[in-house]
Amino acid sequence: MMTSMQACFEEALDDADGLVRRAAEASLGLATPCEGWDLGALLGHMIGQNRGFAIAVRAGDAPLAAYAAPVLTPGEVLPRWSDSASRLREAFRTAPADRTVRLAEFAGREVPVEVALGMQVVDCAVHAWDAATALGQAYRPSAAVVEVVLASARMIAARPGGTPGVFAPPREVAGDDPWAEALALLGR
Predict the structure, then answer these.
(1) What range does the domain containing 55 cover?
(2) Hey, which residues does 112 pair with through a beta bridge?
(3) Distance CA 46, CA 24 (A)
(4) Total-model pTM
């Protein structure tokens, strides 16, 4: 299962990379579907998550400050994104499958590296959609990535109290499109 999750992660990160490259050419003040975040804040969040997870996956832990979202100028988006994405990709490619990762952002929760990898599939795919939406573009990941995101979205939405500060409260699910369902369950 680690191999298929790794493939989904690589694909979702590649998709996010393409959208970040387009977003870097746009106004960082564009509104996003994330309440209170403009495009610059969204991209900063994505970069901070990449950096924090990369350190945690490599070392088994990372301080909360490692996940901090940088405030970006237009010229910083691509270099900072590329560096963070490269570090994250390398961390997951070289992490031992039996490693446990402590996630400071989640109250110090400890998860197997495969679970951390799945979390990043969700983050990459959903934030790629957020960026695409801010740019007025459509984005839909592959069926394999949608399957991972939907399974996680269902678990997140089923938690009592949801995940305050991580995803918005679930919205009503309409229709039978799995990607639309995943987005609705994650408050989009």
Answers:
(1) 2-185
(2) 100
(3) 13
(4) 0.93
HEC profile for the chain?
CHHHHHHHHHHHHHHHHHHHHHHCCCCCCCECCCCCCEHHHHHHHHHHHHHHHHHHHHHCCCCHHHHCCCCCCHHHHHHHHHHHHHHHHHHHHHCCCCCEEEEHHHCCEEEEHHHHHHHHHHHHHHHHHHHHHHCCCCCCCCHHHHHHHHHHHHHHHHCCCCCCCCCCCCCCCCCCCHHHHHHHHCCC
- Which tokens hold the place of 9? 């992660």
End-to-end CA distance of the chain: 28
CATH number of the domain that 133 lies in?
1.20.120.450
pLDDT tens by residue, 18-34: 999 999 999 999 999 99
Three-class DSSP category at 30: coil
Give yes or no for residue 144 having a pLDDT over 90.
yes
Number of domains in the chain: 1
Residue 166, SS3 per DSSP: coil
